Amino acid sequence: QVQLVESGGGLVQAGDSLRLSCAASGRTFSGYTIGWFRQAPGKEREFVSAITPSGSWSEYADSVKGRFTISRDNAKNAVYLQMNTLKPDDTGVYSCAARNGIIRTIVKPYEYWGQGTQVTVSS
User: H/E/C letters for each residue in the chain?
Assistant: First the structure.
């Protein structure tokens, strides 16, 4: 299994940038697909982005495409989410998650989850 801890959230203004980090530990981190999800107040958790074990392929939700970039550094057991041009609609708790398989864009297939980090974007 893998343990995940997110960091890097905060309170920013619209148009600002943040970089979230997902620090991982456990068995065979480099073999896991890692996804980022977010949950806004009163809404269900939604897919944001995901990256394959080698980092050779990534996927993005339409709402963040062109603004967010996911990356990973397996030597550091870390995955990052660079978030640019943030909007108030980006507000939510951002969690990283891991699964032993291909990229999926829904919550259910991801087996391991971090606690989440709060991102708040003001108008």
Answer: CEEEEEECCEEEECCCCEEEEEEEEECCHHHCEEEEEEECCCCCCEEEEEECCCCCCEEECCCCCCCEEEEEEHHHCEEEEEECCCCHHHCEEEEEEEECCCCCCCCCCCCEECCCEEEEEEC
